[in-house]
Design brief:
The chain has 11 helices and 10 strands. By secondary structure, the chain is an alpha/beta fold. The model has no long low-confidence stretch (mean pLDDT 95).
Length: 333
């Protein structure tokens, strides 16, 4: 089975051809970072308009890279939600058009499911496992018992981890996207220089909160205007505080549910310090940590193709009346 997968949940336009749910024949992503850079975050209207410009060239690019045509496609998978409705609708309408014209199955995919299954594009990980999605819009933990079986364990009560990185970077004047610039700056600083708060909420909670640390950084900078060296210490200390919470929570979740495998995905999973800390502490507790390659951590269509393949195998089909879902919890059904 060859699936054409389409992703347009936020600001990246993606298309991919996936064979048998695991082999990417192509995976094209058109980034909008330059469009939103001046604003320090994604502007939904601008994102939607750029998707309209990009969607056809990106799909054509994916077909060309795979040396195939729409006549060879067996099904279409597309991100249905969660995400920005305007952005989602661009991808959904393109997917519907192709499915109708070629009379092939259509399936809508939960974006979070795609992130959790991205690891299977590169390696097999036995079930059950604890999965974490950490990105600009989401920070959540799941018990993953199979390709289509997810149990929600905890999520953010306010800002997502990636959102906190973006907002801190914007306040410090470091640029956008915040995750990359803060990680780069943090390499020059001392992560123990400033004791920013770690929000654990409650001893037994697997929920997250990152708004407090963002406010703590703002208050610190107001009372301690930093030099160039001081800026690096702020970045390193902020990053360490955020990583502490992410690492501890996923280790706690694995221990609580008796699982010795964890998978971290989403844009924040590209962070080198997070990878280093989780691998080290996971080894200490007998827990193996898995991460997709950085290009599969960001939003991409290949991961949607994996999820779509397993939904189709499970008998899922969607009609041409399918619409976007801006808020679509995974594992709470």
């Amino acid at each position: 089975m060859i699936i054409l997968a389409i992703e347009s949940s936020c600001d990246d336009t993606g298309a991919a051809l996936i064979e048998e749910g695991r082999r990417p024949l192509s995976n094209i992503v058109s980034s909008q970072d330059e469009v939103h850079k001046r604003y320090g975050g994604v502007v939904p209207e601008l994102a939607s308009r750029r998707h309209l410009e990009n969607i056809v060239p990106v799909i054509r690019g994916a077909l060309e890279e795979a040396h195939t045509s729409l006549d060879d496609v067996d099904a279409v998978g597309v991100t249905r939600g969660p995400g920005l409705v305007g952005s989602l609708l661009v991808g959904i309408m393109a997917a519907k058009s192709i499915a109708y014209a070629k009379d092939i199955p259509l399936v809508g995919v939960n974006h979070l499911m795609g992130h959790l299954l991205a690891i299977f594009l590169e390696q097999e990980v036995p079930f059950p496992l604890v999965g974490m999605v950490a990105s600009g819009g989401h920070t959540a933990l799941y018990l993953v018992e199979g390709f289509t079986t997810f149990r929600f364990l905890g999520g953010t009560r306010d800002d997502a981890a990636g959102e906190a990185f973006d907002k801190v970077a914007k306040y410090l004047g470091l640029g956008y996207p915040g995750g990359m610039v803060i990680e780069k700056m943090a390499r020059l600083g001392d992560p123990r220089a400033i004791s920013f708060p770690r929000a654990y909420i409650a001893k037994d909670s697997l929920d997250f909160s990152f708004s407090g640390i963002k406010t703590a950084v703002v208050n610190y900078v107001r009372s301690h205007p930093p030099s160039d060296d001081g800026m690096a210490d702020i970045a390193a200390s902020f990053q360490e505080a955020a990583v502490d919470v992410l690492v501890n929570k996923i280790i706690w979740a694995a221990q609580r549910y008796g699982v010795d495998r964890v998978v971290v995905s989403g844009g924040v999973a590209s962070n080198g310090r997070l990878r280093e800390r989780l691998e080290q502490e996971g080894e200490e507790f007998g827990i193996k940590a898995y991460f997709p390659s950085p290009h599969l951590c960001r939003d991409n269509a290949a991961m949607i193709g994996v999820a779509g393949y397993h939904l189709l195998k499970a008998g899922r089909r969607d009609g041409l009346d399918m619409s976007a879902i801006s808020r679509w919890p995974l594992g709470k059904e």
